[in-house]
Amino acid sequence: MNPGTSRLRLTVGAGAAALLAGLALQAPAEAATRVGSPALVFATFNVCKTDCAAPAPSWDIRRDRVARTIIESSVDVVGLQEATHWPTSTAKTQFLDIQNLTAPHGFVAPTYTADSDECRWTAANPRPCTHTTGLLFKSSTVQQISTPNGTPSAGTVPMSRIAAGLTADAAPRKMVWAYLKGLNGAGPFLALSVHVSTFKDPANEASRIAFGAGLDGWVQALNDAHGMSGVPVVLMADLNSYRKRQPQGVQTTLTNAGWADAANAPVKRNVEYSTINYNPLLLAEQGFPKKPYTFTTSKRRPVLDATRIDYILTKGTGVVATDYEVVIRLNPDGTFIPEYQGSDHQMVRATIEIPAG
């Protein structure tokens, strides 16, 4: 048994009422941190849009599963991808639906101003961005800060603000940013959530790499403009790029520029599982298999190389990831516990130490 893999089946109701009535929360194993170092737990989670492809259950079924995974995973900050602006049967947008389900457990979204929310949806400007990302944090452990010069401390921008020459798919994709700090003394820090293009053609691959190449300059300019120069950064992202398929992809662009990959933390959990449930050997069960594909090592392949397109990356002096986990809940026979199978992705979770500013 893997230490971070849940083997306990929970009997829970499918509806939001059961979720909000107070389920017995089942958190993953506590991550290791060094004594006296302030740390927070970050997660990135592609929740699969409202029209998630078959054999995915409908969003009306998956919504409770997504919320349950967030609530029970002991996270302080979570970056969401494919949390769309599309309406659901219970909320104005998919992102608001997730926010409403997690709010009774203390999760809140950053507060924007009209100017800082460049991707805002208005009648005059109804869709300036592709709304596929969101950010939530737990108000009992994290707070949004005020900047030294009184500028907005959170906002949204299209990826076209990060790099020029992006494709029509990449340019309007929304990135969320927020200056936060831990109530335990961690930070302040800049939190980012982004979902880059899913297309695999050369032009969109170049756009992914251009985004990675432009991110440092954009972050520095943002920090300088808000009186937050030198503040560390935590990026929560679906980069649609992984080592085997794209060895020189955006993830390599970022790590070559000094971003640290939380997957290199000294404590790792469930890394034999991919962060996304697509594999040729899953046959017709792509996205929502009954059982995840398990990657193994051999003499020919001594390095465990599970498919990974979801990342938590950090940059900043003294910022250290101590624990990394692919969050996956399985029965004793290795099949998924359906009550937690809300997406075709697994949540990725990392404990990160951030020095007090």
TrEMBL record:
InterPro entries: Endo/exonu/phosph_ase_sf, Endo/exonuclease/phosphatase. GO terms for molecular function: catalytic activity. Residues 43-345 form the Endonuclease/exonuclease/phosphatase domain. This is Unannotated protein. It comes from freshwater metagenome. The lineage of its organism: unclassified sequences, metagenomes, ecological metagenomes.
